[in-house]
Specification:
Residues 1-91 form the N-acetyltransferase domain. With 91 residues, the protein is α+β, with helices and mostly antiparallel strands. The chain has helices at 3-7, 9-16, 20-33, 80-90; strands at 37-42, 51-58, 63-71. The protein contains four helices and three strands; from the N terminus they run αααβββα.
């Protein structure tokens, strides 16, 4: 069974077709600019941006939600995402 069959054509097209970067950029902007959202940059000691985390508070449920976490491919597998998750939870 293919991902397209599992996800449906509309979702699959957004994720995997040639224009997925545009859809991803819209998603990032939407999450970063949403009401109650807080964005944090992941940066190693050399000051280069390695990724980001977007948090959103849900006051009705008294909880925080990690809406999006992304690490640049050159910085993946170095623990940035793993390190950001508990720090985001504390924030």
């Amino acid at each position: 069974m293919s991902f397209e069959t599992i996800l449906g054509s509309a979702v699959f097209d957004l994720l995997y077709r040639p224009d997925w970067r545009t859809a991803q950029a819209v998603g990032v902007r939407t999450h970063c600019l949403a009401a109650g959202a807080e964005s944090f940059v992941l940066s190693p000691a050399d000051g280069v941006v390695a990724g980001f985390v977007v948090l959103r508070s849900d006051q009705n449920e008294s909880l925080g939600i990690i809406e999006m976490i992304a690490v640049h491919p050159e910085h993946q597998r170095h623990g940035y995402g793993r390190a950001a998750t508990p720090r985001a939870a504390v924030h």
